[in-house]
Amino acid sequence: MTKLFFKIILLLTFVWLANNALFLFLKLPLLWGVDYKKQFFYENHSENFNTVFLGSSLTAHQIDNALFDSLNSEKSLSTHSFNYGLDGATPVEIFSLYNAVMQRKPVSLKNILVELDFIDNFDMGQLHSLRRKSFFGFGQYQYTLPLTLASNYDWVYKAELVQFDLVHLVESEFKIGLLQDAYQFIQKQKLRKDTTTITGFSPLIVKEDENETALLNQTRINSRLKFLEEKKPELLRNTKAAKQLFANNNFLHQAKINSTYKKMVTTMLQKADAQKINLVFILPPRLSPGYYKDLLPVYFSLPAQNRIELADANEYPDFYKLEYSFDLWHVTEPCSRIYTKALQQKFTELNIAP
């Protein structure tokens, strides 16, 4: 039994050394597709932007930063912004992306707007070695597991999230996604040659695809309508709960604040103050009640000048309407414009634009 145990340890050590050596030798990229393109573009054009949005798909697909800049310009406010939202980004990834942006110390940077994201934003389909290590490597785990354990979720749910995090740790260190990395290495060369200017915003558009047949288009539309119809009861429950939460937030006095999340946002504020950068946290709409119960104590612990709330279904009913829904979590392009206008209005009220 002891010999078998040591054989397994030796095998795992060999796989770890071999995969990591190959990874370093080939100089494989740590990001894929749109993520890599955004990282590469921002790193080479950071001085062009004085405002950056950081977050998950709720940022990438819902904040039209070109419209945001245009609305600011109408009020004689000068912002040139970049949408650095990454699909499926976790709070720790967003925290690390923030650190990566701050480390560049671009002279032009004046404002950073950060999405407050729910803790279990984890997709097994993204199980891969690249994005998390791109920004912070193994150091992520000083926050990832404590963030989950300090949440207000029940212990069964916490155990499930810890399982995901541990699986990702194994995958990340053993480079199980190495073949996909190799494929992205080829794509990397193409992306480097792509000089197209990007804003980072990618709206969720519901329209017919001219490259598809009428039958395929109708099938796709019918499939989406069926999905939304199935999710309608859940959306209505979430909307009702969001209205009740924001109408009566007495639970905040009893709710335990997530100490790890609070530590992260406090660290971010301290870095922003040190570099004289305006940092604002955004509370997005359409999350489930359980997520808001965990995020709201953190949100209300922030200074008033460092927070924007766009989640109240009483104040922003359009964000929860079925006709504006792309899926349960995201809105379509027309609503992203409404969302961006509301964000810009709140941003103006804070009076922090350069």
Oligomer: single chain
Instruction: Kindly estimate the percentage of residues that lie in beta strands according to DSSP.
Output: 5-15%
CATH classification, class level: Alpha Beta
CATH architectural label:
3-Layer(aba) Sandwich
Helix-and-strand structural type: alpha/beta
Rounded radius of gyration (Å): 21 Å
Record field, number of beta strands: 5
What about the largest sheet?
5 strands, parallel
Coarse morphology: globular
Q: Which stretches of 5+ consecutive residues score pLDDT under 50?
A: 124-129
Taken in chain order, the helices and strands follow as HHEHHEHEHHHHHHEHEH
Total number of domains: 1
**Count of DSSP H/I helices:** 13
Distance between the termini: 67 Å
How is this structure best described in words?
The chain has about 350 residues and is an alpha/beta fold. It has one domain (about 30-125, about 190-350): SGNH hydrolase (Rossmann fold), CATH 3.40.50.1110. The chain is about 55% helix and about 5% strand. Strands 2-1-3-4-5 form a 5-stranded parallel beta sheet, sandwiched between helices. The longest helix has about 35 residues, at about 215-245. The termini are far apart. Residues about 125-130 have low confidence and may be disordered.
